């Protein structure tokens, strides 16, 4: 998004005419495209809002507009399923993953971008390749590894938030590091070189110069790590128990209550889905311009 | 905070195009920007490196070992002493399981979704490239499906697509009997549709970043030449999009192949046969049927179709920015 502002300011001398010059589509076609896409995106989104204040029967019968307006769904979700605990677990796990991951990523990226060593390119290549390894391939071995660790050392990892923390942290690292690598490449080196001449150690340069200069990049890589933890269903569905369950898994329980034969709790399901989406949407709204840049930089979700 | 120019540079650098470095360094052409070799703080790589080795690399190796064992829920506790069956699991996966069918489903699903999201994303990017009142709002709205967590998207569409739900209600207005979307053969198209809804903004974003690299001068030149809008698109604009779009295609295919959450949450377990994509199949083999060895063998076989787009991806992305090219080449020659 920020790149748009850049090109716009560049164009200001040309005045309003430039908007006409850069136009790529005739106006009527443009309007049609925008309207169609907006409807395509917004109808399901609006439906979530409507269904979340509707009665279960009305949702089950396919009503779009709420037949009644009730906020009861929003108060019931906390007791039907322990959604509060799920959200708390998600915040704790994803939040701590975000912080730790961002700082590990900046240190790793700093070495990769500024120093030459044998295996450097292999490391960079591995960062890209590791992002694409399917989680389903690693799920079972990680599970086996953690349960063996438990039987040999007596430290229980499966079922605790620590298990999720370590897993998400590691899986978020390749992408977060890659985001930092592209970010640090854009930073001028002069300050670091000056500090080096003044006799500063690498650690000091990293903490006093690189980190303060790269806050936007650090925030972006932290947020991506947060999203990875928040959005995961695969690992949390296997490695948690009702105590350590994340919001993503707690939401699935609403689906399971529906299979009990009674009327599905659709209204609550939609309300809970919305609540689970709120933290992510808020993060996105606050950091939108940086996130979009980071997303295209890494080229990966 | 970042200046617009750094972000712009970052975008294009990652998209594999040559970008002149900031600060007029361009004027000294092949000056080699040497990287430090003295006082390297290599220990800083240790925390991240150890974690990735422990939780990614070792499990990868372990996965291969498990694939050679007959491991089930009874032998799991002492998996080292599970019976060794050699390639037995692989033979079973290829001949007696639905692995090959799942690979077919995954591949066709990934290709169809990517092929359909591509024009949507590009058209949306072209439509929002000019300034108009409310453009910022439109852009934010376009990103909603992508920002929502996949498990939320899947939960919502599960409700929409249920037999008497809103989707079939809407279809009946047009006299169409929707029938079952979450069961049976049509579930495949339900999955394709929801995947399109949630993943097109990714193509949109990359196409947008490509459009932004088109200089105003180029637009002006096309206007002076009197190019009609479609000729301008075809011969002037599309060539600019080639790089970012190719990258977007590869990454979109990788994402779609590896997508577990969407089918898993949309259909629940047991999933209908028509949507048993590879991630779901391997998941079910381990944690529903408890055939751990078989599941590991399946996962390894399925790596084959991930490997093709991954290989292309690794070739396409430039590992180093342009000014370190000399070092890259010498290291590659070693």
UniProtKB/TrEMBL annotation, chain A:
Q: Where in the cell is it found?
A: Cell membrane
Q: Which residues form the ABC transmembrane type-1 domain?
A: 87-287
Entry keyword Cell membrane: yes
Source organism lineage? Answer: Bacteria, Bacillati, Actinomycetota, Actinomycetes, Micrococcales
Q: Which organism is it from?
A: Frondihabitans sucicola
Superkingdom of origin? Bacteria
Question: Which InterPro entries does the record associate with it?
Answer: BP-dep_ABC_trans_perm (IPR050901), MetI-like (IPR000515), MetI-like_sf (IPR035906)
Instruction: Identify the keywords attached in UniProt to this record, alphabetized.
Output: Cell membrane, Membrane, Transmembrane, Transmembrane helix, Transport
Record field: transmembrane: 29-50, 91-113, 125-150, 162-184, 205-230, 265-287
Please state what the protein is called. ABC transporter permease
Q: Tell me which family the UniProt entry assigns to this protein.
A: Belongs to the binding-protein-dependent transport system permease family.
How does this protein lie in the membrane? Multi-pass membrane protein
PANTHER family reported in the protein's UniProt record: INNER MEMBRANE ABC TRANSPORTER PERMEASE PROTEIN YCJP, MALTOSE TRANSPORT SYSTEM PERMEASE-RELATED
Kindly give the PROSITE patterns that the UniProt entry links to this protein: ABC_TM1
Automatic annotation (TrEMBL), chain B:
Where is the secretion signal located? none
The membrane-topology field of this record reads: Multi-pass membrane protein
Which parts of the sequence belong to the ABC transmembrane type-1 domain?
103-313
Q: Which regions form coiled coils?
A: none
Q: Which residues cross the membrane?
A: 42-69, 103-128, 140-160, 189-207, 237-257, 292-314
> Which SUPFAM superfamilies has this protein been placed in?
MetI-like (SSF161098)
Tell whether Membrane is among the UniProt keywords. yes
Q: Could you tell me what this protein is called?
A: ABC transporter permease
Q: Which organism is it from?
A: Frondihabitans sucicola
């Amino acid at each position: 998004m920020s790149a748009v502002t850049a090109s716009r300011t560049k164009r200001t001398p040309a005045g309003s005419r430039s908007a006409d010059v850069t136009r790529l589509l005739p106006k009527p076609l443009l309007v049609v495209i925008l309207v169609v896409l907006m409807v395509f995106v917004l109808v399901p989104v609006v439906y979530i809002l409507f269904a979340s204040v509707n009665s279960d029967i009305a949702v089950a019968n396919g009503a779009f507009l709420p037949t009644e307006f009730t906020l009861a769904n929003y108060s019931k979700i906390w007791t039907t399923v322990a959604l509060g605990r799920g959200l708390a677990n998600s915040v704790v796990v994803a939040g701590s993953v975000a912080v730790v991951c961002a700082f590990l990523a900046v240190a790793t990226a700093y070495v990769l971008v500024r120093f030459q060593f044998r295996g450097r390119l292999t490391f960079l290549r591995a960062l890209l390749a590791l992002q694409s390894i399917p989680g389903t391939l690693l799920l079972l071995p990680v599970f086996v590894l953690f349960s063996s660790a438990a039987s040999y050392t007596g430290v229980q990892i499966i079922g605790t938030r620590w298990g999720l923390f370590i897993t998400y942290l590691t899986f978020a690292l390749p992408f977060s590091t890659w985001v930092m690598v592209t970010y640090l490449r854009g930073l001028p080196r002069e300050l670091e070189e000056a500090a080096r001449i003044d006799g500063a150690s690498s650690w000091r340069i990293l903490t006093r110069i690189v980190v303060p200069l790269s806050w936007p990049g650090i925030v972006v890589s932290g947020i991506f790590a947060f999203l990875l933890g928040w959005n995961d269903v695969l690992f949390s569905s296997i490695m948690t128990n009702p105590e350590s369950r994340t919001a993503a898994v707690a939401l699935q329980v609403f689906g399971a209550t529906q299979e009990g034969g009674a009327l599905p709790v659709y209204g609550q399901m939609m309300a809970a889905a919305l609540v689970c989406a709120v933290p992510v949407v808020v993060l996105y709204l606050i950091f939108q311009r940086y996130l979009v840049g980071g997303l295209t930089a890494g080229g990966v979700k | 905070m970042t200046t617009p120019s750094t972000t712009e540079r970052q975008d294009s650098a990652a998209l594999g195009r040559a970008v002149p470095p900031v600060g007029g360094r361009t004027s000294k052409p092949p000056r080699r920007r040497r990287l430090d070799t003295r006082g390297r703080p290599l220990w800083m790589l240790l925390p991240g490196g150890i974690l990735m080795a422990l939780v990614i690399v070792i499990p990868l190796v372990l996965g291969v070992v498990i694939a050679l064992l007959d491991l089930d829920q009874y032998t799991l506790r002492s998996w080292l002493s599970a019976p060794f069956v050699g390639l037995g699991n692989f033979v079973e996966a290829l001949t007696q399981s639905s692995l090959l069918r799942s690979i077919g489903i995954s591949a066709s699903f990934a290709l169809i979704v990517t092929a359909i999201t591509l024009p949507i994303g590009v058209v949306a990017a072209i439509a929002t490239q000019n300034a108009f009142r409310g453009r910022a709002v439109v852009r934010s709205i376009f990103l909603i499906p992508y920002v929502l967590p996949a498990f939320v998207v899947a939960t919502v569409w599960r409700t929409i697509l249920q037999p008497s739900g809103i989707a079939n209600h809407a279809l009946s207005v047009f006299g169409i009997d929707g029938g079952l979307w979450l069961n049976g053969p049509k579930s495949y198209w339900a999955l394709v549709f929801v995947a399109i809804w949630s993943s097109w903004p990714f193509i949109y974003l990359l196409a947008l970043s490509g459009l932004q690299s088109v200089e105003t001068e180029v637009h002006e030149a096309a206007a002076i030449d009197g190019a009609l809008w479609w000729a301008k698109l075809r011969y002037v604009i599309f060539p600019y999009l080639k790089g970012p779009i190719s990258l977007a295609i590869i990454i979109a295919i990788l994402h779609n192949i590896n997508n577990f959450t969407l089918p898993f949450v949309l259909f629940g377990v047991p999933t209908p046969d028509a949507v048993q994509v590879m991630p779901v199949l391997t998941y079910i083999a381990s944690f529903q049927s408890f055939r751990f060895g078989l599941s590991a063998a399946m996962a390894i076989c399925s790596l084959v179709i991930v490997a093709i787009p991954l290989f292309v991806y690794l070739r396409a992305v430039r590992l180093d920015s342009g000014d370190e090219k000399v070092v890259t080449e010498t290291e590659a020659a070693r």
